[in-house]
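Good morning,

Attaching, inline, the backbone tokens for the sequence recovery test we're adding to the shared suite. The designed sequence is right after.
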């Protein structure tokens, strides 16, 4: 059974009945999936969901924007970078950007400004993600995004237990995140790619089987 939670309801003030009802839905689920998307509607609710899953040891899978918001939530709550966000939602740079516009792509023109199509991802051996893919250390998944993790904060996140276990072939673009064992979490995985594009009826992509 799939339980739909409107992420905007997770942005309500503490004690609001819509917030309380949304949290009850989260509690009722065996795992939480925060999918991809565009625009700023419900973004703080997606961050809330990722943080709630992390703090309450609820299995979590973030896809594309869902992975990015898990990064933002970790940086806000664990690293203390209060107010940090993605450049997508703060183009005037009023806050710290832990996710940035990919530097090789023009900000002036929206046409052909995305990473699209099948791309290779190099996985850290013995990572949870690698094990889900049968021990592979290189996979091919489809992409659709134009923002990336800001390298300035990668080591801080690694040191605090958010590990980047998947990278592109250059090793410079972060593709997969996992919480380290020091957090004692049963399953916390985020992917920049879209594994659902390769799911088929009866044959879900490996990350969904993990969740």
């Amino acid at each position: 059974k799939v339980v739909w939670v409107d992420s905007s309801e997770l942005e309500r003030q503490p004690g609001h009945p819509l917030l309380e009802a949304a949290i009850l839905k989260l509690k009722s689920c065996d795992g939480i999936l925060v999918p991809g998307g565009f625009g700023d509607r419900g973004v703080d609710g997606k961050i809330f969901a990722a943080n709630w899953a992390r703090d309450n040891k609820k299995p979590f899978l973030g896809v594309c924007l869902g992975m990015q918001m898990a990064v933002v939530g970790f940086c806000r709550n664990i690293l203390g970078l209060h107010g940090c966000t993605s450049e997508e939602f703060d183009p005037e740079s009023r806050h710290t950007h832990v996710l940035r516009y990919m530097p090789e792509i023009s900000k002036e023109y929206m046409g052909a400004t995305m990473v699209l199509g099948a791309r290779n991802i190099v996985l850290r051996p013995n990572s949870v993600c690698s094990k889900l893919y049968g021990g592979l250390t290189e996979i091919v998944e489809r992409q659709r995004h134009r923002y990336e993790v800001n390298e300035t904060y990668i080591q801080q996140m690694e040191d605090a237990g958010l590990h980047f276990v998947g990278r592109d072939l250059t090793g410079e673009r972060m593709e997969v995140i996992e919480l380290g064992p020091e957090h004692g979490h049963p399953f916390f995985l985020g992917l920049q790619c879209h594994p659902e594009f390769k799911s088929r009826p009866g044959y879900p992509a490996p990350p969904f089987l993990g969740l």
